[in-house]
Amino acid sequence: MIDGWPERDRIQGQIDACRRKRKFNSEREADDAAYTARMEGRSLGIYKCNWCGGWHLTSRTDPG
User: pTM of the predicted model, to two decimals?
Assistant: First the structure.
């Protein structure tokens, strides 16, 4: 395997995931959406995206 490819693939996967998700422009908007989801029985958290600078929802307990 060529050095650097696994890291490149991991980063590309994160960018692709970002593009598939809804982007919220503020933490408040994302938190409101997560709250609505919780009222509907879905447990979602929020996190600030390193790629787009916006906020996304996640079902992971540790989005790190």
Answer: 0.77
